[in-house]
Amino acid sequence: MEKALRVYAEMLRLVRRLPKDSRPYYAKYARENFVNYRDFDASDSKALDELFHRAYNHSLWVLNKYSVNESAAQKLKEICLMDENV
């Protein structure tokens, strides 16, 4: 659960880098996705890892769409793909 909250918080930080008129849409989109998966089985680590990987990849797609440098998502990458201890 803690890792999911860290991913969500980092995604909201990335939303702030988007153009002002698109921020509300992507903030709402991120929230809706996290709400939809809140009842997900936390004991299924493989499925959770897949969800975090998908969140990271989608974030990269959005950043590229708005020409935001991918390096902005480095912390999200660390949380989603490299941080296996949480």
UniProtKB/TrEMBL annotation:
Which CDD domains does the protein's record reference?
Answer: Complex1_LYR_LYRM9
According to the record, the signal peptide region is none
Q: Tell me the ranges covered by the Complex 1 LYR protein domain, including all copies.
A: 3-57
Q: Which family does it belong to?
A: Belongs to the complex I LYR family. LYRM9 subfamily.
Against PANTHER family, the record matches this protein to: OS01G0342800 PROTEIN
Q: What is the name listed in the Swiss-Prot or TrEMBL entry for this protein?
A: Complex 1 LYR protein domain-containing protein
